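Class I SAM-dependent methyltransferase
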Amino acid sequence: MLTLEELAQRNVAIVEKYGPWTHNIYLGEGFYTLSDGLEHADYRVKLFLRIVSDLAGKPLNTLRVLDLACLNGIYGLEFAMHGAQVVGIEGREANLVKAQFAKDTLGLDNIELVVDDVRNLSREKYGLFDVVICSGIVYHLDTPDVFGFIEKIGEVCTGLTIVDGHISFTPNEKREYKGETYWGRSYREHVPGATAEEIEKNLLASLDNSSSFWLTLLSLNNLLARSGFTSVYECHYPVRIERYRDRVTLVAMKGKPLHLQTTPLLNDTPEQFYPRQLPDIAHPSQQSAYTEIAVGQELGSLLKQLEDSPDRTVVTLAQLSGKLVDAKDYWQSEAERLRLEFFKLQSYTRDLEQEWNAKNRRIDALETRLNQQSLRARLSTLVSKLRGR
Ligand SMILES: C[S@@+](CC[C@H](N)C(=O)[O-])C[C@H]1O[C@@H](n2cnc3c(N)ncnc32)[C@H](O)[C@@H]1O
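Predicted structure tokens:
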């Protein structure tokens, strides 16, 4: 067991040679690899462990877990400390050396750390896994690699895969794969003209592709579904608030085939996939708020995009203004519908008023008759009393 001082000394040597840590891992003796505060990835560790514990259907110490693009290995190490058999794959040696240091310090022999490109993932090379952690890597791959990568995950995963990362808010560009269309936006990974050494030292970025393709949530869902997953969920709890709101946590499950009993027609109906976008129409009671949010989000991502590609921004602005025209058309037709409804109600109210007046007149007449009758009765009593005298 190393003392705090020895740990600190070894760590300084590693950081000097390989650069800083990203994951904040507690190695015992009061030693944290980054700080004694909480970092973003710490909340993800909690979230991923909770998801797997809740959904894997088996105890953690019976699971085989794959941690893709594992960086300093925090997720894989956590699962290994719960007894799982773990493989961590990372493309940069400088990142994995630190994971190896953590593994050795923690005395774990149930986690294997491999320097490899995640695009080399295959069942033949790595075998099958109950759980795949795919955090912070899908959005670092370009097309067509990203498609093949998700397909490979579908091949090696027998239980569940956690896909955590940024998605594109806007379906700006389309890419074709195996006859299907996927939507998203390009993202520049390295500055133009970056040297191989600069790229290698860019510890959190892609390995060699100069840009990557961020899929929209809908396209990512379609891709997971076409890669053999039977359902996909978005996780909202435990709470994890990231720096950016375009980061999502999806859980894709490998389930068994099902035969529907109450709706047998669906058994022979081809699987449904998402279109480019969902309709921009919400329930009338909150349509205007919805349009504001959607347009606000797009404007936000447009501002970011403007720096990367002014040309594309112009195209998106045109699409956005089209959307506003659609929203205006919608509101015009909604106003027209309400106006007609108002006229209908107005004439209905007029009918009701007439009916009400007619009934009132009848009541008045009846009352008059009633009064006359009682007058007549009182008169006849009076007459008979007079006669009696
Ligand atoms: C943003 S970090 C995410 C790390 C970690 N999975 C997490 O969620 O905290 C991206 C990581 O992917 C690694 N990486 C990028 N492209 C890769 C590739 N093609 N193969 C293997 N690793 C890659 C980078 O070296 C880096 O460690």
